[in-house]
Specification:
By secondary structure, the protein is an alpha+beta fold. It is built from 13 helices and 15 strands. It is flat.
């Protein structure tokens, strides 16, 4: 299917999907202004801030009565505060998945060497992609290249709200990425990049914020001039890899409950924020209430008029708190009369707000699929050392979610690397010796065991004679390559053979060496 040749609504996704993506993006941005704009006007800036929808019933009234949907009274400053829990959830998801880069394995030596370099280059891209994937329900790995920047292609992470995918039986068939290269008032320039098997199509359009507009030449804008020079046929680039799609999709989790009845979004992923928006809204309201208590709890002093110093006719009066002597009133004070000075100090409800915030964070984390301890809700163990086994037991829910997400990311990474190797081995780059088979991708353990735990494991395996020397070395040194492991095994076997061949500690003719001729167990030869 070619690029659009007529003016259509853009992006051409279902309104339900667009609304959800815009909501999640507002929470992920952690910007109070965007949250207020989103829930006050639902992105329609032409409407007034205070409008009847915020005071009536129904769905619109319900959304408008959210904390971020409540209007600020005229003449008052906004006192709403925001806790960036959504950003914390997205960042935590990415860290759980990609705190260690996935292990990449190929067949030929040239492929292995190339994958070692790609492992380091791909790591920050995966961290970025994992974060936007958790926030917006999915992310894409897009293969790009530019000879002025690098002699090899590389991958970039694209969030779900900047792509229009087409799926077939749950697999990505084609995808169109779009970028706003310029926006001037009501005029919007968009660059569309459509990835199909074996080719990438490019198009430049001049439209409005909601419409794609007419197509124009790529040379008409500086941002796409370089792309125009790489076009090989008509409006597309031949990748030299006809069996591969130069873009892959990783859904966050499936199924997406909110879009189950939306056919166009049936295979999209579900955001970690889906369903917990009210909890995050309540968290912001509780936090704002706490800070309001602190502001209201500032001590105030009520003084009688007799203690005020006149500033002159029509200028009011003031109280000098440093003044030490006042002339009293010539009257008797009746029993029960209050003190001339009254100190007003409102209560600050610290524990109530703290308990509510903790409960909201814990429930939001649970609904998103994480353990509350992942976000520090249960402390850090009081400064005591915690074993990997204890951490895994405490973080069980988070680790289960990590394993589930890894099932979706693994094929996406595999397809992305297979396409990159095929493009590099093709006519565009002509690199020889690379495998055309997809590489093997293995996720690393995000929680590493300590040396003491590993040593105990190896000792138990050796006693049971259930592991070889090589296996034991690999357990203790998982970051070593085959050469390092082989060298260490040879040293161990050499030391073992020497000890077996000479079980007694003897010196030259038994002189000058303590315990010469005595076995290691302390018994003599005749014992």
């Amino acid at each position: 299917m070619p690029l659009p040749d007529r003016d259509i609504a853009w992006p051409p996704t279902d309104p339900v999907v667009q609304t959800a993506l815009a909501d999640w993006d507002a929470w992920y941005s952690s910007e109070p202004d965007r949250l207020g704009d989103r829930y006050l006007n639902r992105g329609i800036r032409e409407l007034p801030e205070n409008r009847p929808s915020q005071y009536r019933g129904g769905l619109i009234g319900t959304v408008s009565r959210w904390f971020w949907g409540q209007p600020t009274e005229p003449g008052q400053k906004r006192e709403k505060l925001h806790i960036p829990l959504a950003g914390d959830i997205a960042r935590t998801s990415s860290s759980l998945l990609f705190s260690e880069p996935p292990a990449l394995t190929g067949v030929s030596d040239a492929t292995k060497e190339r994958l070692e370099k790609l492992q380091e280059q791909l790591h920050p891209t995966l961290l970025e992609g994992g974060e936007v994937c958790a926030a917006l329900g999915g992310a894409y790995l897009r293969l790009v290249w530019d000879e002025e920047i690098s002699d090899r292609p590389w991958h970039t992470a694209v969030p779900a709200d900047q792509a229009v995918p087409e799926f077939a039986h749950g697999r990505l068939r084609t995808v169109t990425f779009w970028t706003v290269v310029e926006a001037d008032g009501n005029t919007v320039w968009r660059h569309l990049e459509r990835h199909e098997r074996g080719r990438i199509l490019h198009g430049l359009y001049i439209g409005t914020p909601g419409m794609l507009g007419r197509r124009t030449a790529l040379q008409d804008h500086p941002a796409t001039e370089a792309v125009a020079r790489t076009i090989t046929r008509e409006d597309w680039i031949d990748t030299g890899a006809p069996q591969h799609l130069t873009a892959s999709y990783a859904p966050n989790v499936r199924p997406a409950r909110a879009w189950r009845n939306v056919p166009a979004a049936a295979y999209w992923g579900q955001s970690d924020f889906q369903g917990i928006e009210p909890l995050m809204d309540s968290l912001d309201e509780t936090w704002s209430s706490w800070i309001r208590d602190i502001i209201n709890g500032k001590g105030r002093i009520v003084v009688p008029n007799s203690m005020l110093d006149s500033l002159g006719p029509g200028k009011g009066a003031a109280w000098n708190e440093d003044r030490r002597v006042y002339s009293g009133l010539n009257m008797l004070q009746r029993p029960g009369d209050p003190s001339p000075l009254e100190v007003v100090q409102f209560e600050i409800r610290v524990q109530q707000h703290l308990d509510t915030c903790r409960a909201l964070v814990s429930e939001a984390a649970r609904q998103a699929g994480y353990s509350a301890s992942t976000f520090g809700e249960h402390g850090d163990g009081g400064g005591q050392a915690v074993t990997a086994t204890e951490i895994k037991a405490r973080e069980r829910r988070s680790l289960i979610t990590r394993s589930r997400k890894a099932l979706y990311w693994k094929p996406a990474i595999t397809d992305a690397l297979a396409a990159q190797l095929a493009v590099e081995a093709g006519p565009l780059f002509g690199v020889s010796g690379l495998d055309v088979e997809p590489p093997k991708v293995e996720f690393q353990d995000s929680i590493s065991e300590g040396l003491g735990e590993l040593a105990t494991t190896v000792e138990v395996l050796n006693r049971a004679e259930a592991a070889s020397r090589e296996t034991s070395v690999r357990i203790l040194h998982p970051d070593w390559d085959d050469k390092q492991v082989t060298a260490e095994v040879d040293k161990i076997m050499t030391e073992t053979s020497r000890n077996v061949a000479d079980p007694f500690e003897t010196g030259a003719e038994g002189e000058g060496v303590p315990n010469a001729g005595v076995p290691r167990d302390g018994r003599g030869p005749g014992d």
